[in-house]
Design a protein that fits this description.
This protein is of the alpha/beta class. Helices cover about 55% and strands about 15% of the residues. The chain has eight helices and five strands. It has a five-stranded parallel β-sheet. Bound molecules: adenosine-5'-diphosphate (ADP), shikimate-3-phosphate and magnesium ion. Magnesium ion binds next to α1. The site of shikimate-3-phosphate has 11 residues, from α1.
Length: about 180
C-alpha cells in the first residue's frame, strides 16, 4: 500500500464535526466517504434511534464493530465514525491497525450548541441533554485523548479544519506505511 491510499478514520465526541469534515476531506483527496452511522442505517433499513429503542445500545455497538471489522474498504476511504465507536475495548486498536486515526475535539459549550437542534442522536433524546453530554464527555475523555492526533475545532472554519486534517493525514499515512512495510 502506498501512503496516498491509507484510510483515514475520524473519531471524537458527538458534534465535533466528523460527518461534516469527513465529507469535505473525502472530496478534496478523492477518497470514498463512509459515515458509520449512515452505513449502519442503510444496512439495517432503519434509523439509529430505532436501532437503540428496538434492540438497545449493545446491539448498535456490535453493528459498529462488524462495520469496522469487515464492512468498509481497506484503502482510499475516509471513515467518519460515530462518537461512541471507539469506546468499547479493542476498537481504537482495530482502527489504528487499518489506517490513520484523527480525533476531532470541541469544548462542551461548542458541542451543546452544535447538537442542540438535532434529534437523530438517541443518547441525547433525554429530558436533560446538557447533563447527558457533560456526563458522557467526562466518561469518554480519557479514551479520546489517546485516540491519535487531536485537532481543535472550536471557532475554526470548516475549510481550515479540512486543510489541517488533510495535512495531518498525509504526514501520518507516510509513517503508517513505513511501520507496516
Ligand atoms: N467547525 C465547525 N464550525 C461550525 N459548525 C460546525 C463545525 N463542525 C461541525 N459543525 C456543525 O455541527 C453540527 C454537527 O456536526 P457533525 O458533522 O454532524 O458532527 P459529528 O458527526 O461529529 O457528530 C452540524 O450542524 C455541523 O454543520
Ligand atoms: O457518541 C455516541 O455514542 C453516538 C454518536 C453518534 O454519532 P455522531 O458522533 O456522528 O453524532 C451515533 O453513532 C449515535 O447516536 C451514538
Ligand atoms: Mg456524525
Amino acid at each position: 500500500m502506498t501512503a496516498a491510499d491509507v484510510n483515514l478514520y475520524l473519531v471524537g465526541f458527538m458534534g465535533t464535526g466528523k460527518t461534516t469534515i469527513g465529507r469535505a476531506v473525502a472530496q478534496r483527496i478523492g477518497f470514498t466517504l463512509i459515515d458509520s452511522d449512515q452505513e449502519i442505517e442503510r444496512q439495517q433499513g432503519r434509523p439509529i434511534t430505532e436501532i437503540f429503542t428496538q434492540d438497545g445500545e449493545p446491539a448498535f455497538r456490535a453493528l459498529e464493530r462488524a462495520f469496522i471489522e469487515n464492512g468498509h474498504p481497506a484503502e482510499r476511504a475516509v471513515v467518519s465514525c460515530g462518537g461512541g465507536l471507539i469506546v468499547p475495548a479493542g476498537m481504537l486498536e482495530l482502527l489504528q491497525s487499518r489506517g490513520v486515526v484523527i480525533c476531532l475535539h470541541a469544548s462542551i459549550e461548542t458541542i451543546l450548541a452544535r447538537t442542540a437542534r438535532h434529534r437523530h442522536r438517541p443518547l441525547l433524546n433525554v429530558e436533560d441533554p446538557d447533563a447527558r453530554v457533560r456526563a458522557l464527555y467526562a466518561q469518554r475523555e480519557p479514551i479520546y485523548r489517546r485516540a491519535g492526533t487531536m485537532l481543535l475545532t472550536d471557532s475554526r472554519s470548516l475549510s481550515e479544519i479540512t486543510g489541517h486534517v488533510i495535512r495531518t493525514w498525509r504526514r501520518e499515512a507516510a509513517e503508517f506505511v513505513r511501520r507496516h512495510s
